[in-house]
Write a structure and sequence with these properties.
Oligomer: single chain
Radius of gyration: 28 Å
Order of helices and strands: HHEHEEHE
Helix content: 25-40%
Low-confidence stretches: 4-14, 161-168
Length: 177
């Protein structure tokens, strides 16, 4: 049977004398390992799902005062219905679309703003907040944040989410129109 190297013989030079190395049990220097000295960051990939970036952007946008809701009217309507289904979860990323590459991301966001806010200033604050949060939390470079203001919420305007089912006396069906 040919000689199979053992861990004790791997660090010996051809002359048979052991090569100097770290003491047994010592950890490699910071940022490098036993993999040819490559930094830890080069020994694997981290993949981020699109939904992760969308949720981070959604939370960051909601932190800005003057935002009433995210998404278009249709997306908010379907989202409100989905939220009412037992076991359904609200979508933090509603109204946000992200494209995620290995090192960069681009984000599109649809907003409903409160009446009275200065929209260009609000858009600047939203863009800045999203870029800061996404870059800090993911390490991705945000190349653009496109903002579409789809509606202005008026103070006396009812919302779909706040509407209640009509209350009828027990045992009676609601009248159909």
């Amino acid at each position: 049977m040919p000689d199979t190297p053992t861990p004790g013989t791997l660090h010996k030079n051809p002359g048979g004398a052991p090569t100097p190395g770290p003491p047994a049990g010592a950890k490699p220097a910071s940022g490098t390992g036993g993999d040819g000295g490559r930094p830890v960051g080069e020994r694997g990939r981290t993949a981020l799902a699109v939904g992760v970036v969308e949720k981070i952007a959604g939370m960051a946008a909601r932190e800005v005062t003057g935002i009433h809701a995210l998404g278009s009217g249709l997306a908010r309507t379907f989202g409100a219905m989905r939220d009412r289904v037992p076991g359904g979860k609200s979508s933090i990323g509603r109204g946000i679309k992200a494209e995620v590459g290995e090192k960069q991301t681009a984000i599109d966001i649809a907003l409903v703003v409160e009446y009275g806010v200065v929209i260009p200033e609000l858009a600047h604050q939203v863009r800045e907040n999203i870029i800061d949060a996404v870059e800090r939390m993911t390490g991705l470079e945000v190349v653009e944040v496109n903002i579409a203001v789809n509606d202005v919420h008026l103070p006396d305007e009812p919302e779909f989410e706040e509407e209640e089912e009509p209350v009828t006396p027990a045992g009676q069906r609601p009248k159909l129109k």
